[in-house]
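Why do we bother with a discrete structure alphabet at all? Because it lets us treat a fold like text: something you can write down, compare, and reason about line by line. To make this less abstract, here is a complete entry for LysR family transcriptional regulator. Read it the way you would read a sentence in a foreign language you are learning: slowly, and without expecting to understand everything at once.
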Amino acid sequence: MEDFNQINFKSLRLFVAVLDQGSFSEVARREAISPSTISRVIKLMEQALKTQLLYRNTRTVSPTESGKLLGHHARQVLRQLEEAMRGLQEQDQEPGGLVRINAPVVFGQRHIAPWLHELCQCYPKLNVELMQTDDFIDPLHDATDLLIRIGVMADSSLQSRTLGHQHFKLAASPAYLARCGIPATPAELAQHSCLVFKGFAGAQRWFFRQSHTAWVPYSLQGVLTSNNAETLTQAAIDGMGLVVFPTWLIGDALHNGRLVSVLDEYQVSTSLEAQKISAVYPNSKQPSIKVRAVIDFLLEKFGEPAYWER
């Protein structure tokens, strides 16, 4: 076991840096040490582990299979150390300073803005900048600490925590259903006025399925198409037709009876992929204390399941 004393956090950090840069000289320049020092550290590690970690030539270095395996575990160890050190530094700190939040317009109005007063009461040293837009925002370039985003997460350069899952309902007003009847199957929607959201990608399709069968798409139309969800929701409440929207948007109208859920024996969606409501932040291993405070606050207030689902 004495051989393993040659391996410490510093040597692991240098080894990972060599893997990332593919060069002793570049790491030496960044660390302000000599390339021979780095080479000696790697050799001592190889002697301790009794295996070759790197292939060396005059221009570059590359990992052996053993080197790749060690690199994988070394990154995990260093990441855990960094998180532990940050946690120790922040355990007695109170969240404070400016936290810049970006959220979709309607979701921000419905489910972020109403909680800001209580958030700032909980953390009096916190200042909140809330920007609401449905446009794509890159937090790495738009000076944003936290994004609230709804949909399918695909960007691996970002970290996220799930605040809730997006569930859809097909709904209409009691007056519309009394006048036009209640559809018994998705196919019958062709005889109804369907109020469809139309965004930059075109008019949404509605997908229906029973149990775990395949989704079946329907392209439907009615007296109104719009790119504004609030407009379509109000039109449905006013009796103009049926809508498919997430429960976070029409939950209140369903609870107070202004809208009635239809075809409850079917699952409905506007996408083939499951969609989440996520708190997204740049890939910094662990969010800052102020960002964690906001995320934890929202998770507590939204609940599981989210209050708009109950």
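What the structure line is telling us, in plain words: The chain has three domains: 2-90, 97-162+279-309, 168-269. The first helix runs from residue 9 to 21.
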